[in-house]
Fold this protein.
Amino acid sequence: MGVPLRARSVGPGGRRSSYREWQPAPEIAAAACGTWEGTPGWSRMLRVVPDGCIDITWDGARVRAVSAGSAPLWLPVAASGTTVGIRLRSGVAGRLLGVDVDSWMHRRVVDLREILRWTLPGEFRLRDELRTARAPAAQRLVLEQLIAGRLRRGFCPEPVVLRAVAALAAPDARVDDVAEQVGTSDRTMRRQVRAATGFGPKELHRVFRFQRFLQVLPDIAAGRTTIAAAAFTSGYTDQSHLGRECRRLSGSSLARLTATWRRHSDVAEIDQIR
């Protein structure tokens, strides 16, 4: 359900949190970034920051679709158990699930059965299959098979949406020019991107830009670069601009976010859903 800033960390009493991810099977690589599994290690509230993607997760009891939306999301995690998930690429979920993402994005965490009650009547056995597949590796395979089955049935991403998402992810992207780049009207592009991702183009561009900053956060924490330099390379006007966006998208100041990276005991508190 998330990508920790550190893959492993130690919490109270020496308890350990771990996260691992795997590349997707070739037949679903166009739709999914990959699969993952995470063990919390200790109970806490897990902060999730936006990244524009949607995960389908299984925690041993529920199959859920999860997105942080455009603001930090706090999720409770238990001390025991393992959660597995598959991360859908930005722009894929609308067509793949057969429902406008914008219709449920405001809730951010929803039961997959609720979303798919009209579009997957023959696949409600998913929860039983996940329970039967006791090992995390087998559960991840079930989720991959779900996506592969949807693609075979023709629930493929809209090419124009994928082109628009790719354009919005570019460091030098200009939102007003994206429709022309992908060969459609501005109104159509905005409508299709929102239906497929749950974001307007401007919101999605802001999320991608912040994700670029998070990639260089370890270098800032280690003193290998400065916040001002990271702001420039990530696409922000200046450090103040980055600071405002950091508070909006992570709920923390730049100083606190950097300090969180440095503290191993708090590292899993700033996980990212993708």
Observations:
- The longest strand covers residues 32-39.
